[in-house]
Amino acid sequence: MLLDKTFSQLTTTELFQIYRLRAAVFIVAQSRVVQDPDDVDLIARHIFIKDGDAIVAYARVYPADGGVSFGRVVTAASHRGQGLGRELMDGVMDCIRKYFPGNPIHIHAQEQVERFYYQWGFQSEGAPFILAQTPHVKMTHPAI
């Protein structure tokens, strides 16, 4: 089940599960030093997929840089390979159409998933760079 909520609409259990999932992947599995949670959580729309009561995929969408951005895109290791990334991205793009229409999209994608975002019309800009100890690339999408 795909859900879309503001920070204040999240239950405490959902918030805990989101932070636990993000920490498991970005901090533990990828060995990154990153401030998580951060202030963006307060202004973001939180898009997530539940399997029963458990959150198994997540992304956040927020206004940024004169447009809109999204990030913290993650799928639980136990649920990878099931098409949840595509379902989640469809939800992200629907969220942008609904709440941020007419805004260009700017993201910093981890280099290993750059090709994934091409499916939704994103284009890479510039050379890769390091963000939170991980190679990233800036990607853009025209306003939708």
Task: Please summarize what this structure is.
Helices cover about 30% and strands about 40% of the residues.
Description:
The structure is a single chain. The chain has a 4-stranded antiparallel sheet, with helices on both faces. A 3-stranded antiparallel sheet has the order 5-7-6. The protein has helices spanning about 10-30, 40-45, 85-100, 115-120; strands spanning about 1-5, 45-50, 55-65, 65-75, 105-110, 125-130, 135-140. It contains 4 helices and 7 strands. The protein has about 140 residues and is α+β, with helices and mostly antiparallel strands. It has a single domain (about 1-100), classed as Aminopeptidase (3-Layer(aba) Sandwich), CATH 3.40.630. A hairpin with a 2-residue loop joins strand 3 and strand 4. The longest helix has 18 residues, at about 10-30.
